[in-house]
TrEMBL record:
Keywords: Abscisic acid signaling pathway, Calcium, Cell membrane, GTPase activation, Lipid-binding, Membrane, Metal-binding, Nucleus. GO terms for cellular component: nucleus; plasma membrane. This is Putative ADP-ribosylation factor GTPase-activating protein AGD13. PROSITE patterns: C2. SUPFAM superfamilies: C2 domain (Calcium/lipid-binding domain, CaLB). CDD domains: C2_ArfGAP. Residues 1-106 form the C2 domain. It is found in: Cell membrane; Nucleus. Gene3D superfamilies: C2 domain (2.60.40.150). One of its GO terms (molecular function) is lipid binding.
Length: 167
C-alpha cells in the first residue's frame, strides 16, 4: 500500500468509427494496461460504434509508466484481432490535482490539453471540476489502424494509507 499513490478510475465510454475486422462489423472490447496491471471491458457484439460505459480502476504506483489502451475484436475460433491502440497521458491531469483546488463551481475548466504529435488526443481535452471532483474527458485517436477513436474519462481516487500525490 505504501508504494501506491492512489487509484485512477477510467470510464471507457464508447468507440467511434472503429475498424471492421469481421465481415461487416467487429466485436470490440478495450484492454487498459499499465505495468503489470491489465483490465478489460465487456465485448460489444457486431458494432463499430460501441457503447461500453465500463469503469476500470488501476492502482497508480509510478505515473511515468505508460498507460496503454488497446482495442481488440473478439473472435471465437482464432486469435482476437488488433483494432488499434492509444497512450493515455495522465501527467497534465495529475498536475491539476496537485494544485489542491477546492470548492469550485461545477463545470469550471481547470486546464485544457491540446492534441499534438506526442499525445493521442483527437480533440482538445478539458480538465474540469465536477461535483467536488476533478475529471478529464478525452477522445483518443487510435494508432496502428486505419480508423477509430475511443472516448474515456479519468478520475482520481484518494486511497487511505497511500502515499498520495503531494511530493
Amino acid at each position: 500500500m505504501e508504494n501506491v499513490l492512489g487509484l485512477l478510475r477510467i470510464r471507457v465510454r464508447r468507440g467511434i468509427n472503429l475498424a471492421v475486422r469481421d465481415t461487416v462489423s467487429s466485436d470490440p472490447y478495450v484492454v487498459i494496461s499499465m505495468g503489470e496491471q491489465k483490465l478489460k471491458t465487456c465485448v460489444v457484439k457486431s458494432n463499430c460504434n460501441p457503447e461500453w460505459n465500463d469503469e476500470l480502476t488501476l492502482s497508480i504506483k509510478d505515473p511515468d509508466v505508460p498507460m496503454i489502451l488497446t482495442v481488440h475484436d473478439k473472435d471465437t475460433f482464432t486469435v482476437d484481432d488488433n483494432m488499434g491502440k492509444a497512450e493515455i497521458d495522465i501527467k497534465p491531469y495529475l498536475e491539476c490535482l496537485k494544485k489542491g483546488l477546492q470548492n469550485l463551481p461545477t463545470g469550471t475548466k481547470i486546464d485544457r490539453v491540446h492534441p499534438n504529435r506526442k499525445n493521442c488526443l483527437a480533440d482538445e481535452s478539458c480538465i474540469i471540476w465536477n461535483n467536488g471532483k476533478i475529471v478529464q474527458d478525452m477522445v483518443l485517436r487510435l494508432r496502428d489502424v486505419e480508423c477509430g477513436e475511443v472516448e474515456v474519462q479519468i478520475e482520481w481516487i484518494d486511497l487511505p494509507g497511500s502515499r498520495g500525490l503531494q511530493s
